[in-house]
């Protein structure tokens, strides 16, 4: 049993209506999918979060050739080999994102070879379904009062669908943000509301907005500050009792160690398609656990990354744990994305706000080959390397 072929597919969905968050406007959805095929014909899928063109080059020129001809089951050994071979220039960033996608595909394959779902291989299926919170409520180019009305309507739509909570995007400007979070809370007095600034504020702004969120009983304040300043999270946390969440821009056990040991973060949010893959995600979970911190992965992109997060959350555990423990949450991105909604023959099923944990081998999502062809803008195949 050997790895025989590696293919990468840059898929793109051009949006009819762009949407924005605090940092930029999204005009198209892109992902790099990786398919690793064994000599018996079975294959596994992985995904990289970020610039697909660069990931495609990193897989072709650096990491793919290291895996060809090897045993797919040796996930930790492969991870370490890829990391060690490029350590001098690739400790973080795009290269680590490429390792993440390959590692994810190896976990999918491992499940298929062993005939077990990935969650079982990650330590056990504690849950058969995971409650989701909806991510959406992005900004659109319209007058602010009108935008607030439409965002309140959007939140109502998610709550009616049974989602356990709704994440409100903030970070446009503090005055707008405070008006928005207040209106949403007034409209849904009992709902679980979360907020995400995508690192838009300096410390005084974060404190000002955070006090309002705290008063309005929001569940967490995500990325209030730049990921470059873990010490500011600590300073903010000392001023607020509201949990702070962050980590989607962070990678590896070493990156999370620095971030979490700084002391200001209550919820760690690694993206499994970027942080180093499932192998590294499990290490980050252990590290977080050692500091009494819970992990709720950042999820964006296609069903491959979502399936990884579903299995990860199914096999997780809560800190500190109790008989009537709160269930772990899953981030469920609802913003327009055909790469999530139209690319899979077998997707992750979401009903009444719960994501079903696949019981089929591996990650349990099946790519629709025809759809893949139609969304693919660049394909690379190791047979041509
Ligand atoms: Mg976020």
Count up the helices: 13
Largest sheet: 10 strands, mixed
Bound heterogens, unique: magnesium ion
Tally of strands = 16
Number of domains: 2
How would you sum up the global shape?
A: globular
Beta-strand level of the residues, as a percent range?
A: 15-25%
- Class per helix and strand makeup: alpha/beta
Low-pLDDT regions: none
Q: Please provide the ordered H/E string of secondary-structure elements.
A: EEEHHHHEHEHEHEHEHEHEHEHEEEEHE
CATH class division of the largest domain: Alpha Beta
Overall description:
By secondary structure, the chain is of the alpha/beta class. It folds into 2 domains: 3-115 and 369-384, Enolase-like, N-terminal domain (Enolase-like, domain 1, 2-Layer Sandwich), CATH 3.30.390; 120-366, TIM Barrel (Alpha-Beta Barrel), CATH 3.20.20. 40% of the residues lie in helices and 22% in strands. The protein is built from 13 helices and 16 strands. The strands form 3 sheets. Strands 4, 5, 6, 7, 8, 9, 10, 11, 13 and 14 form a 10-stranded mixed β-sheet that branches. Strands 3-2-1-16 form a 4-stranded antiparallel β-sheet. α1 crosses α3 (94-114), α3 (94-114) packs across α10 and α9 runs parallel beside α10. It is globular, with a radius of gyration of 20 Å. The two termini are 21 Å apart. The model has no long low-confidence stretch (mean pLDDT 97). Bound molecules: magnesium ion (MG). Magnesium ion binds next to loops.
């Amino acid at each position: 049993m050997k790895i025989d072929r590696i293919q990468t597919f840059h898929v793109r969905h051009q949006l009819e209506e762009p949407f924005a968050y605090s940092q930029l406007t999204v005009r198209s959805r892109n992902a790099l999918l990786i398919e690793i095929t064994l000599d018996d014909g079975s294959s596994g899928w992985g995904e990289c979060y970020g610039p697909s063109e660069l990931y495609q080059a990193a897989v072709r020129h650096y990491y793919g050739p290291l895996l060809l001809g090897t045993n797919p089951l040796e996930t930790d050994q492969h991870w370490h080999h890829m990391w060690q071979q490029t350590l001098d220039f690739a400790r973080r960033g795009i290269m680590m994102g490429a390792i993440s996608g390959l590692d994810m595909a190896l976990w999918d394959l491992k499940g298929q070879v062993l005939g077990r779902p990935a969650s079982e291989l990650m330590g056990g299926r504690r849950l058969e379904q995971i409650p989701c919170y909806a991510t959406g409520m992005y900004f659109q180019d319209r007058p602010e009062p009108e935008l607030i009305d439409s965002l309140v309507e959007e939140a109502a739509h998610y709550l009616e669908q049974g989602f356990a909570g709704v994440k409100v995007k903030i970070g446009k400007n503090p005055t707008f943000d405070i008006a928005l979070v207040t209106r949403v809370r007034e409209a849904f007095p009992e709902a679980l509301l979360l907020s995400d600034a995508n690192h838009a504020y300096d410390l005084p702004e974060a404190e000002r907005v955070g006090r309002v969120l705290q008063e309005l009983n929001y569940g967490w304040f995500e990325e209030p500050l730049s990921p470059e300043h873990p010490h500011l999270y600590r300073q903010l946390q000392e001023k607020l009792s509201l949990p702070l969440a962050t980590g989607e821009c962070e990678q590896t056990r070493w990156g999370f160690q620095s971030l979490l040991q700084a002391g200001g973060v209550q919820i760690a949010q690694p993206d499994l398609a970027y942080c180093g893959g499932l192998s590294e995600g499990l290490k980050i979970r252990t590290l977080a656990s050692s500091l009494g911190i819970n992990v709720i992965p950042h999820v964006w992109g296609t069903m491959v990354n979502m399936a990884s997060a579903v299995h990860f959350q199914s096999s997780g555990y809560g800190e500190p744990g109790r008989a009537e423990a709160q269930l772990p949450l899953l981030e469920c991105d609802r913003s327009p994305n055909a790469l999530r909604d139209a690319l899979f023959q077998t997707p992750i099923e979401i009903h009444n706000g719960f994501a079903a944990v696949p019981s089929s081998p591996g990650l349990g999502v099946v790519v629709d080959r025809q759809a893949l062809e139609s969304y693919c803008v660049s394909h690379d195949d190791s047979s041509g390397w």
